[in-house]
């Protein structure tokens, strides 16, 4: 599929009416080390007079920005005397619930639960205020059973959950091949098997599935277990970019504590710049924080290829989020969502301007 095709015919999507599973943590292997951990404590003047800013993220490499910012002290440095507190999630709905209840103030989250949370609240509970990561999704197959893309027809392919971003991305790709699948049941020319990322490697090893359309690090775990990458989803998008992780904030917190929001965004921009300038050190820091958060780091044979496939960015890639929502509509899993106002990129663009960086765009879906 050529990369210059319309955005509205590619990629992931979101089913706002369905429960969504965000990218779950997958830890495998031996102990990770990070010899350059920054121990930064809360000191100095409090930001916006706050005692604490509560930050949520997933224990997953696609959340490299908060993993590294936590590990290296970027958040705490920018918040000064206000303590950075953290909560680690393994599913989007629980993070959205925490945001709605006030248990967290700002979070890193995938596009599906962000749109789900926004549309279910009729646009009243959150704003997307920045980007964090692109890519990191692959179709990995058993090379003995599937040798080409056309061989996917008739096979059993796993996705993380009905209606999640990878599930609808795969349904969209199937439709573009001219094949038919019932989205709800997963039955048709391809059998779409909904399988939690944590159990998919076992299903692959047992032969009960022939492949999987999954995020990192699950994709690289399957490769380490003998699978082969048949398709990298980045190849289906213009410029090989599509949003996989956003930054969201409670609308109440955004309106009442703009200085704290700007401080967290400064830390995010600084962290992203540091990650891109020091990829090997950043990879070690992310893996060390994964070990602390989940109890298991990733071994090199999983960590290295997974890290290479993820692109860290400040840009929320807003046009691709809109495309993802349209793919869900095309699959019959979502009625046309009203996304106007889901973005407020003004604080991020203020931070970027002060850092001498170009502004990012909201694709016409921003707060005015």
Record field, number of beta strands: 11
- Can you give the mean pLDDT? 88
The chain-level structural class is alpha/beta
Task: Report the total helices.
Answer: 13
Computed CA radius of gyration, to the nearest angstrom: 20 Å
Low-confidence stretches: 1-36
Strand content: 15-25%
Please estimate the helix content. 25-40%
Q: Main beta sheet: strand number and arrangement?
A: 6 strands, mixed
Q: Helices and strands, in N-to-C order?
A: EHHEHEHEEEHEHEHEEHHHHEHH
Write down the overall geometry. Answer: globular
Q: N-to-C terminal Cα separation, in Å?
A: 36 Å
Strand order of the largest sheet: 2-1-3-10-4-11
Give your account of this protein's structure.
- By secondary structure, the protein is an alpha/beta fold.
- The protein is 36% helix and 17% strand.
- The chain has 13 helices and eleven strands.
- The protein has helices at residues 64-72, 74-79, 92-101, 111-120, 165-176, 200-206, 218-224, 251-256, 258-277, 279-294, 300-308, 318-330, 346-354, and strands spanning 52-58, 83-89, 106-109, 126-135, 137-141, 156-159, 191-194, 211-215, 228-232, 243-250, 310-312.
- It has a six-stranded mixed beta sheet with strand order 2-1-3-10-4-11, with helices on both faces. Strands 7-6-8-5-9 form a five-stranded mixed beta sheet, sandwiched between helices.
- α1 crosses α9 (258-277) and α9 (258-277) packs across α10 (279-294).
- The protein is globular, with a radius of gyration of 20 Å.
- Mean pLDDT is 88; it is low at 1-36.
């Amino acid at each position: 599929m050529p990369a210059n095709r319309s955005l509205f015919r590619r990629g992931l999507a979101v089913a706002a009416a369905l429960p969504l599973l965000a990218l779950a943590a997958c830890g495998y292997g031996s102990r990770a080390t990070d010899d350059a951990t920054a121990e930064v404590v809360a000191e100095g003047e409090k930001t916006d007079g706050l005692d604490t800013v509560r930050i949520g993220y997933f224990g997953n490499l696609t959340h490299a920005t908060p993993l590294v910012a936590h590990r290296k002290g970027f958040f705490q440095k920018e918040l000064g005397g206000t303590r950075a507190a953290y909560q680690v999630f393994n599913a989007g709905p629980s993070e959205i619930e925490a945001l709605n209840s006030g248990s967290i103030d700002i979070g890193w989250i995938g596009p599906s639960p962000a749109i789900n949370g926004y549309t279910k609240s009729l646009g009243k509970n959150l704003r997307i205020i920045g980007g964090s990561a692109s890519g990191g999704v692959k179709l990995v197959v058993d090379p003995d059973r599937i040798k080409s893309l056309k061989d996917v027809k008739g096979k059993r392919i796993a996705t993380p959950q009905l209606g999640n971003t990878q599930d609808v991305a795969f349904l969209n790709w199937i439709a573009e091949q001219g094949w038919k699948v019932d989205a709800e049941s997963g039955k048709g020319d391809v059998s779409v098997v909904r399988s939690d990322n944590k159990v998919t490697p076992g299903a692959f090893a047992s032969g009960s599935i022939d492949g999987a359309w999954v995020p990192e690090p699950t994709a690289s775990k399957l490769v380490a277990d003998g699978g082969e990458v048949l398709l990298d989803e980045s190849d289906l998008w213009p410029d090989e970019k599509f949003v996989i992780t956003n930054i969201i904030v409670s609308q109440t917190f955004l309106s009442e504590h703009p200085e704290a929001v700007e401080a967290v965004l400064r830390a995010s921009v600084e962290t992203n710049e540091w990650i891109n300038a020091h990829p090997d050190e950043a990879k070690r820091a992310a893996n060390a924080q994964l070990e602390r958060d989940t109890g298991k780091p990733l071994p090199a044979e999983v960590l290295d290829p997974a890290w290479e496939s993820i692109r860290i960015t400040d840009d929320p890639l807003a046009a691709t989020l809109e495309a993802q929502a349209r793919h869900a509509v095309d699959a019959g899993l979502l009625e046309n969502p009203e996304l106007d106002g889901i973005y407020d990129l003004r604080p991020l663009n203020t931070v970027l301007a002060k850092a001498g960086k170009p502004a990012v765009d909201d694709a016409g879906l921003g707060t005015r």
